[in-house]
Amino acid sequence: MVKHWRPVVAALATVALVGACGSDPEPTEEQAVQPATTSCASSGELTMWERSGGNKQMVDLLVEAWNTKNPDCKVALTYIPHTEMVGKIAQGIASGEVPDLMGMDLIYAPQFEKAQQLVDLTDRIKSWPEIATASKGHMTVATYEDKLYGVPLYADVSALFYNKDLFTKAGLDPEKPPTSLTELKEYADKITALGGDVKGYYLPGNCAGCNIFTVGPLMWASGAKIEATAEGDEPLTGDGVKQVLQFARDMVKAGNVHEGDRAENGETFHLQFGTGKVGMMGTGNFNITLARQQNPNMKFGIGLLPGVTPNSSASFIGGDLVVVPRGSKRVADAVNFMKFLLSDEVQVEVYAKALNLTTRTDMVDNKYFQAEPLVQDVAKALDVGRTPYTLTFFEQINSPQGPWLQMLQKAYYTDESLDTIIADAKKAMKTVASQG
Amino acid sequence: MRRRGYLVGAVCLALCAVMLMPLLASVLASLKPTAEAAASPPTYLPGALSLDSYQRLWEYQQGLPVYLFNSLGTAMLTILFTLLLTVPAAYGLARFPVPGKELLFVVLLLALIVPYQALLTPMFLMFAKLGLTNSLIGLAVVHTAIQLPFSLYVLRNSFAAVPRELEEAAIMDGASSVQSLRRVFLPATVPATVTVALFAFIMSWNEFLGALVMMSKSSKFTLPVVLAAARTETSLGGTDWGMLQAGITISIIPCVGVYLLLQRYYVSGLMSGAVK
User: Are A104 and A119 in contact (CB under 8 A)?
Assistant: First the structure.
């Protein structure tokens, strides 16, 4: 979920375009496809790129685990500044200076798959039993026209975090997070009533990515659809869109969010829950460790992001995929690295041990999660989660000037008619999708 | 009179305060413990001092020393290339009857109005073929190219300002043109040369886009690229302010150092009395 692309990307993308004309576009396919293993097929250092600002701690651990097991073909990891990643990849592919494998923000995968800039791995990985249980959201975006291009590197899912201390103070049951939007509003009112600088809820006012991550699921859980998948597809359908916008507007009007939230552009989003001054907040699994570091004494729980109907829920599955850029000289080893990531041992002894989500849903039941109920709770989001699939995710949703954020800001902070606001956003999203 | 002195002092102090405030805030923020550095609203003075942020930066990926070395190496090479190219060029254009030299000079200066971002694309593709990507020399060549027009402009004017009598005296003493460059022009244009070197250093030290495009291995990154990568904490744009400020503080030090070191060459009245 890149927050903003800079003009820099334009410069880098030009490199890609110009380069594409000159360089030979034929992918280097290896002769025979060897069955994948979890160790190296050939020796020599493997180069890997990953965006900064992803789950660095997790990726470092995974690479370390691989390197310990495979001292002959260690992975050399380079973090590329996250706002420049898309341009840098495009530039690399165009000039042939590509890493052997790379981590990629999953949301941009369809774009690169469509442009044929990734190596088609269907024949190599499709038959693996692990693929069947790999995170659905990841696998959706790793697939383009029935071809498979990658596997999950790690998962970031959104859920509803709530402060048990504040719940108790407000006379709410700390074991029962809200299960519908009505309850969410009701609980937030009670927590805000505690006074001081405590507020019941949190809405990031100026961050498109934070909102698709945490407000989007409220709409999905209410039966709505958000983005236009392709040209001619109708975005923002279902009553849920209007219901959630109304809910958010009511929250702001009732004073259930801090005044400063309006300026939140993502830079301090991850630090809000840990302050202990927010009763409930949609955020990601990364916030578990972070909130504990910030505020070791605070007790908190995790529920699912609810919809209008009681007990409905949804989540945004984000995170990264491992893919192989076209021009990689070590496809077989990249595939082995993928096999390694999905193996039972790594799922439990690396992902789960570090209290990160396993990328296979059948590995959720493990000894480390059993000892850590919060992770178990957040892992439930994997089952109800989804990942938007569109070639124009940035323009429709993630752009700070895009229709998604504009719609939300008007809904949160103005009194304009919600129908007009939604109609405007629909029109803008359709236009963008038709240009994709 | 004394009252006026106080007034001037007060104005100077106020100006300094305005200029130094952001620097000070940045240094102070780099010394805050992690949680405090990220606090919103921010605190003015650190509640406790801590080197956490520096430690995180020091240990980031290949380690800060590698990146400092890359940045410093590139900057030094940039200074070297820039001076090697512009000193003879400026001397020639200022002192010799080169045919069409005014036009040549203008054409060279034209590069100033082309944004270098536009030049990066062809440069990158060319460098990729020559094997100059992921190399400090390659990056220094890019930085030199960016810095050339300005340096040439400064040096040529400075060479042109050296009194003709000095040059003639050298010729009378039997100096060749290379000798008079070494014995007369270079000593006479020290302030300009220092300016050019200083600007080349600062530009190369701070430059981001060229380094990002040319380097794709973490062991070859320069400080600005690493700072851009290291500060992002979450994919939603979360920023590690403490580490960013620590990086900024560290990256200021060499610039200030080089400036202090070279500023003694800015001597006024160097030429006074050279010619009667």
Answer: no
DSSP label at A237? B
CB pairs under 8 A between A and B: 122
Cβ-based interface (< 8 Å): residues of B facing A: 35, 38, 40-41, 61, 117-118, 120-122, 124-125, 128, 133-134, 209, 212-213, 216-218, 221, 225, 228-230, 232-239
Q: What distance in Å separates the CA atoms of residue A147 and residue A145, rounded to the nearest whole number?
A: 5
Tell me the CATH architecture of domain A158-315+390-435. 3-Layer(aba) Sandwich (3.40)
Query: CA torsion sign, A332 to A337 to A338 to A339?
Result: positive
Q: Is the pLDDT assigned to residue B270 strictly greater than 60?
A: no
The residue that leads in pLDDT, B20 or B273, is: B20
Does residue B14 sit in helix, strand or coil? helix
d(CA B78, CA B197): 9
Decide: helix, strand or coil at residue B69.
helix
What's the rounded Cα separation, in Å, for the pair B31 and B48? 8
Rounded to the nearest angstrom, the minimum Cα separation between B228 and chain A is 5
Q: Read out DSSP for B211-269?
A: HHHH--SGGG--HHHHHHHHHB-STT--B-HHHHHHHHHHHHHHHHHHHHHHGGG--TT
Interface test with B, best of A270, A356, A399 (most B CBs within 10 A): A270
Helix runs in B96-135, H state only:
101-110, 116-130
Please state the φ and ψ torsions of residue B56, each to the nearest 5 degrees.
-60, -40
Q: Do A18 and B121 touch (CB under 8 A)?
A: yes
Nearest CB partner across the interface for A266, out of B40, B61, B238: B238
**Chain A residues inside the 8 Å CB shell of B238:** 53, 266-271
Residues of A within 8 A of B212 (CB-CB) are 8, 12, 81, 84, 88
B121 vs A62: CA distance, rounded Å: 35
* pLDDT > 80? residue A49: yes
Asked which of A63-77, A385-399, B92-106, B227-241 is least confident by mean pLDDT, the reply is B227-241
Residue A197, number of CB atoms within 10 A of its CB: 7
Q: What is the least distance, in Å, from the CA of A263 to any CA of chain B?
A: 12
Which residues contact residue A318 at a Cβ distance below 8 angstroms, ignoring those fewer than 6 apart?
A1, A105, A106, A107, A137, A155, A156, A157, A158, A213, A284, A387, B235
Average pLDDT over all residues of chain B:
88
DSSP-assigned letters across all residues of A161-180: EEEHHHHHHTT--TT----S
Q: Which of A97, A260, A286 sits opposite B216 (nearest CB)?
A: A97
Instruction: Give the pLDDT score at B274.
Output: 58
Alpha helix positions (H), A273-372: 287-294, 331-342, 344-346, 367-370
Specify the length of chain A in residues.
436
* Structural domains of chain B in order of their starting residue, each with its CATH number: 2-53 (no CATH), 61-231 (1.10.3720.10)
Per-residue tokens: B90: 């400026």
Residue extent(s) of CATH 3.40.190.10 domains in chain A: 43-156+317-386, 158-315+390-435
How much is the pTM? 0.83
pLDDT of residue A27: 44
Please tell me the CATH code under which domain A43-156+317-386 is placed.
3.40.190.10
- Find all residues with CB under 8 Å of B84, minimum gap 6, and list them: none
